[in-house]
Write a structure and sequence with these properties.
Elements (H helix, E strand, L loop, with lengths): L2 H35 L7 H4 L10 H10 L12 E5 L3 E4 L5 E6 L6 E2 L4 E5 L2 H36 L5 H34 L1 E3 L4 E6 L6 E2 L6 E5 L3 E8 L11 E6 L7 E8 L9 E8 L11 E5 L7
Antiparallel strand pairs: 1-10, 1-14, 2-9, 3-5, 3-8, 4-7, 5-6, 7-9, 10-13, 11-12, 11-14, 12-13
Helix pairs in contact: 4-5
Length: about 325
Amino acid sequence: MTKRTLALAAALMIAAACAGDKKAEKPTEKPAETAAAKPAPPLPADVAQLAPVAKPADASGAAAATSQEPAATSLAALQPTGEFVSPSRSEVAPKQPGRVAAVYVDAGSRVSRGQPLLTLETDYPRIEVQRAQADLARARAAENDAHRDFERKKGLLGNQSIPQATYDRSQSAYEQAQAARASAEASLALAKQHVADAVMRSPITGVISERRTDVGERLGEAGVAFVVEQTAPLKLRFSIPERYLGELRTGQPVTARVDPYPGETFTGRIKTVGGVIDPATRTFFAEAEFANADGRLRPGLFARIDLGHAGAR
């Protein structure tokens, strides 16, 4: 066999071996292709509801996705929640120390401005009034006597019957008597004011939120006896997303609904629009004022707010 024949036979053997290798590789590739082509098993029903639906990534699919995105909510469609707060809160304390003689109201009582809340014992202040009245009577008598003497001295001086020094002394005595009478009047007024201060009165119209005293207790000048919260008018505070800052303005109407009065709405107006954005929540606060003339709304009530056409220009 020649060299040429041997080379040709070797080439044929190598080609046959390569063909065998390719045939051996093809069966290993078919299972992978089959697995890729085989559809995935269906998801459970509860999971399938949460799984996103695959959409073609073409122009029509992008437009459909855009059309399904929720439009920006208008201010009128917002329904924020808030809480009614009292615009004024007063801690009522006595003007002077004393022992409680009577209490006229309790926690939860509605009170008006100037209404008596309690009375302190007034035995000693009334005695002071009697003594001041006696001092005033004595001072007035002394003033009248000094006035008569001064008038006599004035006539005698005109006739040159008395020296100037005598007249001057009489005039000075009369002026001192006038001052003593004025001082006695001030003392009497002070004693009467102590009696009047024994009656503690409400400084505002509202509701008693706390009662901290009882009959027989001694109250000091710093002792708080009652806490009164104003209820008319009443403020409703709530928060709004920052993108509506330009749409909400003072004077706009709002309505509120509260659980104690189902089916009823209460009307108020925007009183304050906060100018500072909360960096944590990206919201700003607003306050609406409600007249609450009937007093049915109370501080602390949770409310659902309807801004209606508040954003209309």
